Amino acid sequence: MTYVVTEACIKCKYMDCVEVCPVDCFYEGENMLVINPDECIDCGVCEPECPPNAILPDTEKDLEKWLELNRSLSTAWPNITRKGETPADADDFTDEKDKFEKYFSDKAALHT
Amino acid sequence: MSDVQWHKTACNLCYVNCGIEVAIENGRMGKIRGDRSNPKSQGYLCNKAARIPYYAHHRDRLTSPLRRRADGGFDAISWETAIAEIAGRMREIHAAHGGQSFALYGGGGQGNHAGGAYITSLLRALGSRNTFNALAQEKTGDFWVNGRMFGSQHCHTAEDVHHCDLLFVLGCNPWIAHGFPNARDHLNRIRKDSARKLIVVDPRRTETAELADLHLAVRPGADAFLLGALLAILVRRGAIDRAFIDQRTTGFEAVRDALLGIPAEAWAKAADVPMADLERSVDMIAAAKAMVVRVELGIQQGVNSTLNSYLEKLLILLTGSFGRPGTNQLHSWLVPLWGNSPGKVYVPTGDEIIGGLLPPNSFAKAVLSDHPERLRAVFVDSSNPANTVADTSEAERALRALELLVVVDVAMTETARLAHYVLPASSQYEKTEFTLFSFEFPTNYFHVRPALLPPLPGTLPEPEIYTRLARALGLLPGDNVLAPLKEAAARSRNDFDKAFRAFLMENPTAQPIAALVLYNTLGPTLPNGNAAAAVLWPAAQSCAKRMPGSLRRALDAPADVPDRQLADRLFDALLTSPQGTAFSVHSYEEMWSLIETPDGKVQLAVPELLEWLGRLDVGQVDPNPDFPFVLAAGQRRMFNANQIFRDPAWRRSDPDGALLINPEDLAQLDAADGAWLAVQSERGRIVVRGQADESMRRGQLALPHGFGQAYPTSDGTRLTSGPRINLLTAGGNRDPIAGTPYHKNVPVRLERATAEEAAAAEQTSRRIREGAAAA
Ligand code: SF4
Ligand code: SF4
C-alpha cells in the first residue's frame, strides 16, 4: 500500500507534498515528482497538499501504470526533502489534459 | 486562506502519541502534518492522524449536561443543577453505603490522562480506590508477571526496535497497529537490510508477516505451546546466555528443569508449527547480536495470557536480550500509569487487584452481586464500557442497575445513554492534556499539550467538572482557605512549595484531594493555560528525587545547577514545550537501578506460572464441536481506533467493519464475498458483512474493535455502524490470574444471515455510507 504521484503533477510540481512527508520518500524528476512505494508509509498527509490532486492512494482504480512509474523512477531520481521553486507557469498546467503524452520526461531533476 | 495558524500538539489515537502540527482555521481543526520538532516521533505519523478533526468536530458532540428521564429520554439541565443533584445523590449513597460503593470506570483514553488524575483524587477523598479501565482488559497479566520478576508491577519493558538486528514480533501487527515510534519506517528499514531479520508469530499472515524472514502461523490459542516448545529447544541446544543469567538473574535452575520437561515435538504439533521452523527460529536467535521482542494483545488477550507474558519474558531473559542497545529494557516513568498492588484482593468479586486496577470482566459482578460492598455509584470518564466490556448484555444490565451512573464524555456514547447524568467534556484539543504513555529507553519523553481551541460552548474540561463536584461535596476547601496558597503561587514557585507543604501538614484530610488543590491554586499561574498540568508538579519533584542524574542529562542542565532546581526546570520545560520534552536519559548500566527486587536481580522462577506451564495439556487446542470457529474479537485495522471516533465519515475503507474469513471457509458456507453472515457465540448473535481474506487461517475469523457506535443521520435517526463485538464475548472466558479477557479466542459458529437480517443490515449500511459520503 502506497500513495502514488500521477499525471496531474507533470509541469505543475508545486512540491507542497515534500514538506509534509514524514519519511521523505519523494523523488524529483525534471518536471514531476514520484513517491518510492517501498518507503511510503501510506499516511496520506501529502494527498490534500497537492493543488492539482495528483497524489492518489494505490487502492484507486487504473493506477498500475503510475505505480510502476513511481517505483522505477524513484530509484533513478534524486531524493527531495525540501520544497524547491515551483515553475513560474505551474498554474497554466493544472487543468490541462493528456500531459503524459505531451510532456512526460523520465529525466532526473538537475541539482546544482 | 483565511487566518490559518499552525499549532504543535500530539495525536490522541494511539499510545505512541506522535507529535503533530494542526492547522486551526476559523475555529476548527483542519490539516494535520507530522511535527518534525517532536523529539520522539520526529515528524512521523500514520494514516489515522489526518482524520483527527472527525473526532473533534461532529454533530454528536454533547453541549449541555443531561439528566435521564424515566422514559429513557434526556433533559438538558444547567451545570449548577447537574452538579447539585449529582452531589446530592453521591452524599446519600455515601452516607448509606460508604466510599467502597463508588468506582471509576476509565479515566482517560489514548490521548488524555489529565482528567483521570482529578477524578481519582475526588474518589480517593470519598474513600474509594476502585478503578476499572482498559489496562485491566489488556495488560494486567503482564504487570503481574513484571511484579514477580522485576520486583514491582511498575516495572515495564520497553523495546528498542530501532537498533535490533532481530525483531521477534509476537501477537501483534505493527505495520497496521504501530505500537512503537515510527513503526512503518523502522519495519521498512529492517526489511531492506539483509543483516536484520524479522520473525512474526501470528495465526494470520498479517501485513507485518508479509515482511518477515520467518512467519510462524501458530494455531489460534496455542501461543503458550509454541513459546514453551521454542524455549525448550533454546535450553536443549544451549542457545542461552549463561553469563547474563548468572550475573543478572536468580532461579534459573527451576526454570531450566521445567523447560526441559516440555515435550517440544508434541507442543509444536499443538501449535501447528513445524519443528523445523522452531529450530530455524533458534538459529536466528542464536545468530542475533541484539534481539528485541515486541508483543501485544495477540498473546495478552489470547488463551493462557498471563502464562504467555511469562514465557515471553523468559525468551527475552534467557537469551540475554535485555538491557543492551537493540534489545528490551525497563523504562523510567515521570508518573507511573498504573499502581503496584501485589497480593491485594477486591473483596466483592474476589479478584486480585493488579497495578491498582480491577478487571472490567468482573465489572458486572461487582455491581450485581449481593455483597454489602458492591458498587452502587460509578463515574465513567472517557470510556464506553457498554461497548467495550466483555458480554455487552450483562454489562448493560449492570450499568442499568446502578443507583448512580455519571458519564463524562465528549459525545453521546452507548454508556451515556444508560446514565442518570451525562456531563459534556471539552474535546482533547479544547483543553490542556497529557498522557502517561512514556515507554521509551534510554531517553524517555513527556508531552503536555496546551489547548488549540476554546471549549465548545456548554462543555467543561474534566478538572473543572471535578472541582465543582468536590466543592459541592465539601471535599475541596473553600476560597478563603485556598487564598494563601493562591497568593504564594502568584509570588513564586518556592513560596508555593513552602505554603503547600504547610497546608498539607495542617490539613491532613486534604491529602487525597491534593491534585484538585494544586489545580485550583498553582494551576491558574501556569503558562499556556496549562492549569491541568498542576498535578505534574509533584511528579517533577519525585522524578528529580528518584533519578537526578538521568533528569540532569535529559535537561542538559549545567553542573552548577543544584539538584533541588532540577524539578522546577523540568516542570517549566513540560509547561512550555508543546512539542514534548525528554525527562530522563539513562545509561544501560543505570537501567538496573529501575529493577525493584531486593537483590537487584531478575527473578526467573515464578512458582505459580511454572506450575501452570506443567499443567498445560495439548487437548486444550482441540476444536469445540459446537463452536468450530475461533474469532479474534477486536482486530486492529487501517481505520479503527478504540471508541474515539463516532462519525463514520472518518473511515476511508471497511465501512461495515467486516468479518475476515478464509475464502474456503466462506465457500463452505455457500456464501459470496461481501455476503451478510450471522456469528453465533455462547452469549449472542450478530450479523456482519463477510469478507474473504487469504491471510486468514482456516477456522479463524476476525472482527475489528472500534465499531458498534450509534451516530445520528441528517434526519436524527441513530444508526449503529459495524459490529458490537462484545455481544458475542463472555465474561468468564478470561485469564485465571488477571481476569483479562481471551478476546482473541472467542468460540463461535457461522451461518448465512436470514434474508430479513441481510436486508436490514444492507439498508443500515447503505444509509450510513450515504451519510458519510455527504459529510
Ligand atoms: S502518503 Fe505519507 S509517506 Fe507516503 S508519500 Fe505521502 S506523505 Fe509520504
Ligand atoms: S502511530 Fe498512533 S499516535 Fe502516531 S499518528 Fe498513528 S495513531 Fe497517531
Indicate the overall shape of chain B.
Answer: globular
Q: Which ranges of chain B are low-confidence, i.e. pLDDT below 50, for 5 or more consecutive residues? A: none
| Main sheet strand line-up of chain B | 5-4-19-18-17-6-7
Q: What gyration radius of chain A follows from the Cα positions, in whole Å?
A: 12 Å
Biggest sheet architecture of chain A: 2 strands, antiparallel
Explain this structure to me?
The complex is a heterodimer of chains A (112) and B (775). In chain A, the strands form 2 sheets. Chain A has a two-stranded antiparallel ribbon with strand order 1-4. The longest helix of chain A is centred in the middle third of the chain and has 13 residues. Chain A has 4 helices and 4 strands; from the N terminus they run βαβββααα. In chain A, a hairpin with a 4-residue loop joins strand 2 and strand 3. In chain A, 24% of the residues lie in helices and 11% in strands. Helices cover 34% and strands 18% of the residues of chain B. Chain B has 27 helices and 32 strands. In chain B, the strands form 10 sheets. Chain B has a 7-stranded mixed beta sheet with strand order 5-4-19-18-17-6-7, covered by helices on one side. Chain B has a 6-stranded mixed barrel with strand order 25-29-26-28-27-32. A 4-stranded parallel beta sheet of chain B has the order 11-10-9-13. In chain B, strand 2 and strand 3 form a beta hairpin. In chain B, helix 8 packs across helix 12. The radius of gyration of chain B is 26 Å and the shape is globular. The interface between A and B is medium-sized, with 15 and 17 residues. The site of one iron/sulfur cluster (SF4) has 11 residues of chain B, from loops.
